[in-house]
Amino acid sequence: MTKEAPGSGQRRSQLLRGVLDLCLLALIAERPRYGFEFAQGLAEGGLELVSDGSVYPLLARMERAGLISAFRAASPSGGAPRKYYRLTEAGHAELATGRADWLAFAGPVGRILNDSHSPGETHDE
């Protein structure tokens, strides 16, 4: 069992909060999806800590903002129809802008973190 550094769970949560909308847009861009598939897709991508309680309110906000649209389709298992989401034209534009913003941000942060000294090293003078 590994122990997380103090605050690392909170930091990870804050980082995810800032990009969860982009992750959802990217998943929808692959193909229309319904609720359960979002948590599944995020977990497959290594973001298993995201709950439905985070996904559904964000989907509702993105739908109100015109980034995604919803439609109902029959369940393959014969159950109740499922609510699927697809990107709108505005959603595609938002995803493209968000990807560019993320790459412009993550690149420099990665360089700074990778170029800095190892944990435990100090520069006492």
What does this structure look like?
By secondary structure, the protein is mainly alpha-helical. It has helices at 8-30, 35-44, 52-64, 89-115, and strands at residues 33-34, 68-73, 82-87. A hairpin with an 8-residue loop joins β2 and β3. The radius of gyration is 18 Å and the shape is globular. The chain starts with 7 loop residues before the first helix and ends in a 10-residue tail after the last helix.
The average pLDDT score comes to: 87
The structure class reads mainly alpha
- Write down the oligomeric state: single chain
- The proportion of residues forming helix, as a percent range, comes to 55-70%
User: What composes the largest sheet?
Assistant: 3 strands, antiparallel
Question: What fraction of residues sit in β-strands?
Answer: 5-15%
- What shape does the CA trace take? globular
Give the low-confidence spans.
none
The number of E-state strands comes to 3
Cα-based radius of gyration, to the nearest Å? 18 Å
Main sheet: strand order: 1-3-2
Query: Topology as H/E string?
Result: HEHHEEH
Termini distance? 37 Å
Number of discrete helical segments: 4
Short description:
The protein is mainly alpha-helical and 125 residues long. Helix content is 58%, strand content 11%.
Topology, pairings included?
Blueprint: H1 8-30, E1 33-34, H2 35-44, H3 52-64, E2 68-73, E3 82-87, H4 89-115
Antiparallel strand pairs: 1-3, 2-3
